[in-house]
Write a structure and sequence with these properties.
Porin; signal; about 260 residues; mainly beta; 3 helices; CHP02001
Protein backbone atom coordinates (compact mmCIF):
# COMPACT_ATOMS: atom_id res chain seq x y z
CA UNK A 1 0.00 0.00 0.00
CA UNK A 2 2.96 2.30 -0.27
CA UNK A 3 5.55 3.70 -2.69
CA UNK A 4 8.83 2.36 -3.99
CA UNK A 5 11.97 3.60 -5.69
CA UNK A 6 11.62 7.14 -4.36
CA UNK A 7 15.01 7.04 -2.64
CA UNK A 8 16.46 5.18 -5.58
CA UNK A 9 15.47 8.00 -7.93
CA UNK A 10 17.05 10.58 -5.66
CA UNK A 11 20.35 8.76 -5.34
CA UNK A 12 20.78 7.75 -8.97
CA UNK A 13 19.09 10.42 -11.08
CA UNK A 14 19.35 13.85 -9.50
CA UNK A 15 21.19 16.21 -11.86
CA UNK A 16 22.09 18.82 -9.26
CA UNK A 17 22.74 19.25 -5.55
CA UNK A 18 23.56 21.90 -2.97
CA UNK A 19 26.64 21.42 -0.81
CA UNK A 20 26.79 22.52 2.81
CA UNK A 21 30.51 22.54 3.62
CA UNK A 22 31.92 22.43 7.10
CA UNK A 23 33.90 25.51 8.16
CA UNK A 24 36.51 23.33 9.87
CA UNK A 25 37.14 20.66 7.26
CA UNK A 26 36.88 20.40 3.50
CA UNK A 27 36.47 16.64 3.84
CA UNK A 28 33.22 16.83 5.81
CA UNK A 29 30.23 18.13 3.89
CA UNK A 30 26.59 17.59 3.17
CA UNK A 31 24.71 17.55 -0.11
CA UNK A 32 21.05 18.49 -0.18
CA UNK A 33 18.93 17.57 -3.18
CA UNK A 34 15.33 16.85 -3.99
CA UNK A 35 12.47 16.92 -6.46
CA UNK A 36 8.77 17.59 -6.80
CA UNK A 37 6.47 15.58 -9.05
CA UNK A 38 2.98 15.71 -10.46
CA UNK A 39 1.72 12.24 -11.43
CA UNK A 40 -1.49 11.12 -13.08
CA UNK A 41 -1.63 8.38 -10.44
CA UNK A 42 0.38 7.17 -7.44
CA UNK A 43 1.25 3.50 -7.84
CA UNK A 44 3.22 1.46 -5.30
CA UNK A 45 4.40 -1.96 -6.39
CA UNK A 46 1.86 -1.85 -9.17
CA UNK A 47 -1.08 -0.88 -6.93
CA UNK A 48 -2.85 2.46 -6.87
CA UNK A 49 -2.51 4.54 -3.71
CA UNK A 50 -4.88 7.31 -4.84
CA UNK A 51 -7.83 5.39 -6.28
CA UNK A 52 -6.41 6.09 -9.76
CA UNK A 53 -6.43 9.86 -9.13
CA UNK A 54 -3.56 12.33 -9.52
CA UNK A 55 -0.80 12.76 -6.95
CA UNK A 56 1.57 15.54 -5.96
CA UNK A 57 4.79 14.20 -4.50
CA UNK A 58 8.05 15.49 -3.07
CA UNK A 59 11.43 14.05 -2.10
CA UNK A 60 14.49 15.37 -0.37
CA UNK A 61 17.85 13.73 0.31
CA UNK A 62 20.61 14.92 2.63
CA UNK A 63 23.87 13.07 1.96
CA UNK A 64 26.96 13.18 4.18
CA UNK A 65 30.43 12.65 2.71
CA UNK A 66 30.82 9.58 4.97
CA UNK A 67 28.05 7.81 3.04
CA UNK A 68 25.29 8.23 5.59
CA UNK A 69 22.08 9.93 4.48
CA UNK A 70 18.60 10.87 5.58
CA UNK A 71 15.68 11.31 3.23
CA UNK A 72 11.95 11.89 3.16
CA UNK A 73 9.11 11.27 0.72
CA UNK A 74 5.65 12.85 0.78
CA UNK A 75 2.51 12.22 -1.27
CA UNK A 76 -1.23 12.47 -1.05
CA UNK A 77 -2.98 9.08 -0.72
CA UNK A 78 -6.56 7.81 -0.71
CA UNK A 79 -7.39 4.44 0.88
CA UNK A 80 -10.97 5.38 1.71
CA UNK A 81 -10.13 6.09 5.35
CA UNK A 82 -8.58 8.88 7.45
CA UNK A 83 -5.18 8.68 5.73
CA UNK A 84 -4.69 11.41 3.13
CA UNK A 85 -0.96 12.12 3.48
CA UNK A 86 1.96 9.71 3.33
CA UNK A 87 5.18 11.05 4.87
CA UNK A 88 8.05 8.53 4.87
CA UNK A 89 11.45 9.20 6.50
CA UNK A 90 14.55 7.20 5.50
CA UNK A 91 17.95 6.65 7.07
CA UNK A 92 20.73 4.72 5.37
CA UNK A 93 24.31 4.28 4.28
CA UNK A 94 25.81 3.89 0.81
CA UNK A 95 29.36 3.07 -0.26
CA UNK A 96 31.11 2.27 -3.55
CA UNK A 97 33.52 -0.56 -4.33
CA UNK A 98 36.37 -0.51 -6.83
CA UNK A 99 36.08 -3.60 -9.02
CA UNK A 100 38.12 -2.71 -12.07
CA UNK A 101 36.01 -0.85 -14.60
CA UNK A 102 32.90 -1.43 -12.51
CA UNK A 103 32.29 0.47 -9.29
CA UNK A 104 29.08 -0.87 -7.77
CA UNK A 105 27.44 1.06 -4.96
CA UNK A 106 25.91 -0.75 -1.99
CA UNK A 107 23.01 0.97 -0.25
CA UNK A 108 21.41 -0.26 2.99
CA UNK A 109 18.82 1.46 5.12
CA UNK A 110 15.44 1.64 6.79
CA UNK A 111 12.31 3.55 5.88
CA UNK A 112 9.21 4.26 7.90
CA UNK A 113 5.90 4.11 6.06
CA UNK A 114 4.01 6.83 7.88
CA UNK A 115 0.38 7.84 7.30
CA UNK A 116 -0.79 11.07 8.88
CA UNK A 117 -4.17 10.54 10.54
CA UNK A 118 -4.01 6.73 10.35
CA UNK A 119 -1.05 5.67 12.50
CA UNK A 120 -2.13 2.02 12.76
CA UNK A 121 -1.04 1.62 9.12
CA UNK A 122 2.56 2.68 9.91
CA UNK A 123 5.46 0.22 9.81
CA UNK A 124 9.21 -0.04 9.18
CA UNK A 125 10.86 -1.66 6.17
CA UNK A 126 14.55 -2.53 5.72
CA UNK A 127 16.28 -2.59 2.35
CA UNK A 128 19.51 -3.37 0.55
CA UNK A 129 20.25 -2.19 -2.99
CA UNK A 130 23.15 -2.48 -5.42
CA UNK A 131 23.69 0.21 -8.08
CA UNK A 132 25.55 -0.82 -11.24
CA UNK A 133 26.22 1.66 -14.05
CA UNK A 134 27.44 1.16 -17.63
CA UNK A 135 26.48 -2.50 -17.43
CA UNK A 136 25.02 -3.06 -20.91
CA UNK A 137 25.37 0.41 -22.44
CA UNK A 138 26.87 3.79 -21.59
CA UNK A 139 25.17 5.57 -18.66
CA UNK A 140 22.67 2.81 -18.01
CA UNK A 141 21.67 1.76 -14.46
CA UNK A 142 20.94 -1.73 -13.19
CA UNK A 143 19.61 -1.81 -9.62
CA UNK A 144 18.60 -5.06 -7.89
CA UNK A 145 17.13 -4.67 -4.39
CA UNK A 146 15.60 -6.63 -1.51
CA UNK A 147 13.22 -5.20 1.10
CA UNK A 148 11.82 -6.83 4.23
CA UNK A 149 9.35 -5.99 6.97
CA UNK A 150 8.04 -8.03 9.89
CA UNK A 151 5.00 -5.77 10.34
CA UNK A 152 3.48 -5.37 6.89
CA UNK A 153 0.38 -3.18 6.99
CA UNK A 154 1.11 -2.04 10.54
CA UNK A 155 -1.09 -2.69 13.55
CA UNK A 156 -4.20 -2.54 11.35
CA UNK A 157 -3.12 -5.63 9.39
CA UNK A 158 -1.91 -7.44 12.52
CA UNK A 159 -5.20 -6.91 14.35
CA UNK A 160 -7.25 -7.88 11.30
CA UNK A 161 -5.40 -11.19 10.78
CA UNK A 162 -4.50 -11.92 14.38
CA UNK A 163 -0.75 -11.96 13.75
CA UNK A 164 2.10 -9.86 12.39
CA UNK A 165 2.77 -10.23 8.65
CA UNK A 166 6.28 -10.76 7.29
CA UNK A 167 6.77 -9.55 3.73
CA UNK A 168 9.72 -9.76 1.32
CA UNK A 169 10.02 -7.67 -1.81
CA UNK A 170 12.53 -8.48 -4.58
CA UNK A 171 13.01 -5.92 -7.33
CA UNK A 172 15.08 -5.30 -10.45
CA UNK A 173 15.13 -1.85 -12.05
CA UNK A 174 16.89 -0.97 -15.31
CA UNK A 175 17.19 2.45 -16.96
CA UNK A 176 19.09 3.44 -20.08
CA UNK A 177 19.35 6.52 -22.31
CA UNK A 178 18.73 6.31 -26.05
CA UNK A 179 22.11 7.04 -27.64
CA UNK A 180 22.98 10.73 -27.21
CA UNK A 181 19.37 11.91 -27.05
CA UNK A 182 17.43 13.15 -24.04
CA UNK A 183 15.10 10.15 -24.29
CA UNK A 184 15.49 6.94 -22.35
CA UNK A 185 13.79 3.73 -21.26
CA UNK A 186 12.85 2.29 -17.89
CA UNK A 187 11.88 -1.27 -16.97
CA UNK A 188 11.06 -2.70 -13.57
CA UNK A 189 10.05 -6.12 -12.25
CA UNK A 190 9.07 -6.81 -8.64
CA UNK A 191 8.00 -9.83 -6.61
CA UNK A 192 6.20 -9.66 -3.24
CA UNK A 193 6.06 -12.66 -0.88
CA UNK A 194 4.20 -12.70 2.45
CA UNK A 195 3.91 -15.37 5.14
CA UNK A 196 0.12 -15.17 4.92
CA UNK A 197 -2.38 -15.40 2.07
CA UNK A 198 -3.19 -11.67 1.80
CA UNK A 199 -3.02 -10.89 -1.94
CA UNK A 200 -5.76 -11.28 -4.52
CA UNK A 201 -9.22 -12.75 -4.74
CA UNK A 202 -7.91 -16.25 -4.01
CA UNK A 203 -5.94 -14.96 -1.01
CA UNK A 204 -2.55 -15.71 -2.56
CA UNK A 205 0.60 -14.94 -0.61
CA UNK A 206 2.59 -13.54 -3.53
CA UNK A 207 2.33 -11.45 -6.70
CA UNK A 208 4.42 -9.81 -9.42
CA UNK A 209 4.39 -6.17 -10.46
CA UNK A 210 5.98 -4.52 -13.47
CA UNK A 211 6.68 -1.20 -15.11
CA UNK A 212 7.80 -0.41 -18.68
CA UNK A 213 8.12 3.11 -19.98
CA UNK A 214 10.01 5.90 -21.66
CA UNK A 215 11.56 9.03 -20.20
CA UNK A 216 12.56 12.48 -21.45
CA UNK A 217 14.96 14.86 -19.68
CA UNK A 218 14.90 18.59 -20.38
CA UNK A 219 18.24 19.53 -18.84
CA UNK A 220 18.02 23.36 -19.12
CA UNK A 221 15.16 23.34 -16.59
CA UNK A 222 16.05 20.13 -14.69
CA UNK A 223 12.74 18.61 -15.78
CA UNK A 224 11.97 14.97 -16.43
CA UNK A 225 8.87 13.40 -17.97
CA UNK A 226 7.95 9.72 -17.80
CA UNK A 227 5.19 7.72 -19.45
CA UNK A 228 4.92 4.13 -18.26
CA UNK A 229 2.63 1.12 -18.19
CA UNK A 230 2.34 -0.23 -14.64
CA UNK A 231 0.48 -3.33 -13.47
CA UNK A 232 0.36 -6.54 -11.44
CA UNK A 233 -0.79 -10.14 -11.76
CA UNK A 234 -2.92 -9.93 -8.60
CA UNK A 235 -5.99 -12.15 -8.89
CA UNK A 236 -9.02 -9.82 -8.85
CA UNK A 237 -11.72 -12.44 -8.25
CA UNK A 238 -14.35 -10.85 -6.05
CA UNK A 239 -12.89 -7.35 -6.42
CA UNK A 240 -15.11 -4.37 -7.15
CA UNK A 241 -14.57 -2.70 -10.52
CA UNK A 242 -12.76 0.17 -8.79
CA UNK A 243 -10.40 -2.20 -6.97
CA UNK A 244 -9.76 -4.16 -10.17
CA UNK A 245 -8.77 -0.96 -11.93
CA UNK A 246 -6.34 -0.17 -9.13
CA UNK A 247 -4.13 -3.24 -9.76
CA UNK A 248 -4.54 -3.80 -13.50
CA UNK A 249 -2.30 -2.32 -16.20
CA UNK A 250 -2.51 1.47 -16.37
CA UNK A 251 -0.68 4.25 -18.17
CA UNK A 252 0.90 6.66 -15.68
CA UNK A 253 2.42 10.01 -16.64
CA UNK A 254 4.82 11.80 -14.26
CA UNK A 255 6.42 15.22 -14.57
CA UNK A 256 9.31 15.90 -12.18
CA UNK A 257 11.30 19.02 -11.34
CA UNK A 258 14.72 18.45 -9.76
CA UNK A 259 16.48 20.92 -7.55
Amino acid sequence: MRNSHKLLVLISALPSSYTLASENSENINFKLSGNASLASEYRWRGQTQTKNDTAFQGNFLLNHSSGFYISAFASNVDFGDEAHLELDPFIGYSTSFNMGKKQPTLDVGMLRYNYVGKSDLNYNEYYIKVFLTNLLSENDNFIPSISYTNKYGGEAMSKNLGEDINNWYFNILYTTPFAQSNFGAIANLGYSKANKEIYGGKSENNFYDWKVGTTYNYKPMNLSAELAIIGTNIDTSGFTETNKKGVKNAAVFTLTKYF
